[in-house]
Design a protein that fits this description.
The chain is mostly beta strands and 276 residues long. The protein contains two helices and 23 strands. Strands 18-17-16-15-14-11-8-7-19 form a nine-stranded antiparallel sheet, with no helix packed on it. A two-stranded antiparallel sheet has the order 1-2. The longest helix has 9 residues. The chain starts with 17 loop residues before the first strand and ends in a 7-residue tail after the last strand.
Length: 276
C-alpha cells in the first residue's frame, strides 16, 4: 500500500497500491473486501455457507471451496529410469480430527512409510490401528519431507520435525512460506509458477549452485528436473490409466499388469531401454 498511518486494513485507500513482479509495478484494478460468503454459491457449490464462512464438502478446500484434493496419496519419480512404485509416496497430512491440513487453500502431503498403515479403500485414506497413534509416527533423521503450496509454486522440501505432532504444529500456526524460510537450502525442488490446486502435471526445477540473482530471484538460477507426481489410486475405469498393457482392479483402484509389463501404470515393457 502507499505509506499510511491507518491501522485497520479496510480503511486504507484503494489508490496507490503496488505489486511485486520482479520489479515494483503499479497494481491495476485493486480491490479489497472481507472474505465472507453470503450463500452456497459463494462456496463454489462445493460447500455450505455457515455464519459467513464456507464449510467445504469432502475433497474440497480453500476459502471458497474451489480447490479439489486430487487424491490421498501421491507417487513420484525423479528420473526416467525410475518406476513410480519404487519410490515412497506422499500421504495427505491430517489433523487430530482427521481433517486435511492446508496451506493457501491447497492440501499438504507428507512422505510416510505406509507399510505401518492400513488403508480404507471406500473412504480413500490411511488409518492406524488401535496400537499406534498418528502422533507417534517418527520421521527418519528428524526431518519431514513435505509437498505443499507456497502461494506461487508447489514446493518439495524438508522441515525439522521429529514426529507427526511437530509437523502438524508447523502448519497449525499462521504459516507463510517466506517467513518460515522454506525456500532455502532445505529445498529439494519446486514447480513452475502456478495457481494449480495440485502438484500433478507440473514442470519441476532445482536450485543450481549459483545463489545470487537469476531465474529464481535471490535463490539463484534453476535447473529443470525430470520429477513428476501422480495419484497412486485413480478411477482407472474412467481415466483408462492402465493403458493397453494393464487391467483395472476396480476394488483397489490400481492396475493389474499383463505378462511382460510392469510399473504402477503398466507403462514399462521388457523391450524398453532404461539406460540413463
Amino acid at each position: 500500500s502507499p505509506e499510511t498511518e491507518v491501522y485497520a486494513l479496510e480503511e486504507v485507500p484503494l489508490q496507490g497500491w503496488s505489486i511485486w513482479t520482479g520489479i515494483t509495478d503499479t497494481a491495476q484494478d485493486f480491490s479489497l473486501s472481507c472474505d465472507e460468503c453470503s450463500s452456497n454459491i459463494d462456496c463454489s457449490l462445493h460447500g455450505q455457507c455457515v455464519e459467513s464462512t464456507c464449510v467445504c464438502d469432502k475433497k474440497w478446500l480453500g476459502q471458497r471451496c474451489d480447490s479439489k484434493i486430487p487424491c490421498n496419496e501421491l507417487l513420484y519419480t525423479n528420473n526416467r529410469c525410475s518406476d513410480y512404485k519404487e519410490l515412497p509416496g506422499f500421504v495427505l497430512l491430517r489433523d487430530e480430527n482427521n481433517k486435511t491440513m492446508e496451506v493457501y487453500g491447497r492440501p499438504v502431503f507428507a512422505k510416510l512409510d505406509t507399510s505401518s498403515l492400513d488403508y480404507n479403500f471406500d473412504q480413500d485414506y490411511y488409518y492406524l490401528d488401535d496400537d499406534f497413534s498418528w502422533n507417534e509416527y517418527v520421521f527418519d533423521n528428524n526431518e519431514a519431507n513435505v509437498v505443499f503450496y507456497t502461494g506461487r509454486r508447489w514446493y518439495d522440501g524438508y522441515f525439522p520435525a521429529h514426529n507427526i505432532s511437530v509437523l502438524r504444529g508447523i502448519f497449525n500456526e499462521t504459516f507463510h512460506a517466506h517467513w518460515d524460510s522454506v525456500l532455502e537450502d532445505n529445498t529439494q525442488w519446486f514447480s513452475e509458477q502456478t495457481d494449480s490446486s495440485t502438484p500433478i502435471g507440473l514442470e519441476w526445477y532445482e536450485l543450481s549452485e549459483t545463489r545470487s540473482g537469476g531465474d529464481y530471484g535471490p535463490f539463484g538460477r534453476v535447473k529443470k528436473v525430470a520429477a513428476s507426481y501422480h495419484c497412486k489410486r485413480v478411477d482407472c475405469e474412467i481415466s483408462n490409466v492402465c493403458g493397453l498393457y494393464g487391467e483395472c482392479n476396480k476394488t483397489e483402484h490400481t492396475c493389474n499388469c499383463k505378462l511382460g509389463t510392469f510399473g504402477h501404470f503398466c507403462q514399462f515393457t521388457s523391450d524398453d531401454d532404461y539406460s540413463c
